[in-house]
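To: structure subgroup
Subject: Chain for Friday's discussion

All,

I'm putting the inputs and outputs inline so they're searchable in the archive.
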Amino acid sequence: MVKKVYTTAQEFFAQNEGLGLNLPYSENTDLLAAPLSVGKLTIPNRLACQAMEGCDGTADGSPDELTVRRYDRFAAGGAGLIWFEATAVLPEGRANPRQLYIHKGNLDNFKRQVERIKETGLKTNGFEPVVIMQATHSGRYSKPEGTPAPLIAYNNPIFEGDSPISADRIVTDDYLDTVRNALVEGSALAQQAGFDGVDIKACHRYLNSELLSAYHRPGKYGGSLENRTRLLREGIAGAMERCGGNFIVSSRMNVYDGFPRPYGFGVGEDGTDFDPTEPVWLLKQLRRQGVELLNITMGNPYFNPHVNRPYTMGGYEPPEHPLTGVARMLHGIAALKREVPELKLICSAVTYLGVAAPNVVAAFVEQGGFDMGGFGRTVFAYPDFANDIVKTGGMDKNKLCICCSKCTEIMRTPGGTPGCVIRDRDVYLPIYNRQCKK
């Protein structure tokens, strides 16, 4: 099984044909330089930096030196949209003691961060990128003091096995009401800080995402599809009402978890194949509420990363070729776009495509499969990917993320601050050696 990223188009063609995946490919990458209108804002091009958490904020949740450095690189890199990383809206919802956390006490620090992103983009590229803040509650992955302090929607035996999390860590409906209010308040603070929009995060099994599969949870946040999507829908509605029409309200959303019911969203009654029925219903509801832009993803980076990224190496042998996971993600997003064509969708999971990434993204955009290419791990390794695509029509094989997952290894160590160990080695190789080679 070939697991390296593609450094030539021919490598991609051979694998795509050999696996029968029918991923399209276009030489017309110029269309990725075209602007995209979302509400009253214009995103300068069709390339986005996905939310890549650095776990390097200050104790009070403000951006710190490595945070500022990272966004300087992203802003100078030329992407039209910067999806700003997971930012907690409640202290107990932080995924680690250095996760960003926006509140009234540090609002000025976020203002300075956004201003710097805008100024850097304008000075370097002649335009200000659109910046959307990801508002989060980490739920089962909460570690505000550095040790696990999960807050869950329900116990999931796929994760917990024979050791369920204690019942007092299952959040009440009243607490979820508090989370909804905090998401709305966090959205208002994001607007005051100068962000162009907010993402009510509902992916990767964090709290809002976990609720999407709370089939057996009692009360107003479980059971029916309307109830399971309540926190997301009401959080978005509240943010829209609070912030007004010039502010983008969106979500980075899991449409497929990759494990069976009643513990996985986006699957049918039997098996684990992607079933778009419930995701399509949700997308249509959000469009009726006025949502114009959604950032789509699948899988869980902590449980089945081959579905989420996909990945080329790690703690287990994936059951499929990485390109199969890419195809499921991209064809799945295109299937949603066909059902809700009026929504503007951002794709995920293109890093593994290597030099073929801009051509595959361009082909899907050309065919109406989605509207923007979202690049995740790539941005740690290759922050100027967008400028290279726009100016040269492609990506430099010598700058590519090689999908080694060392950034993830760092992130999963206590106190780790992830970045690219290979391409940004002067800063992150010492961190990797300190954190991961004890």
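Points worth raising on Friday:
The chain has 16 helices and twelve strands.
The mean pLDDT is 97.

D.
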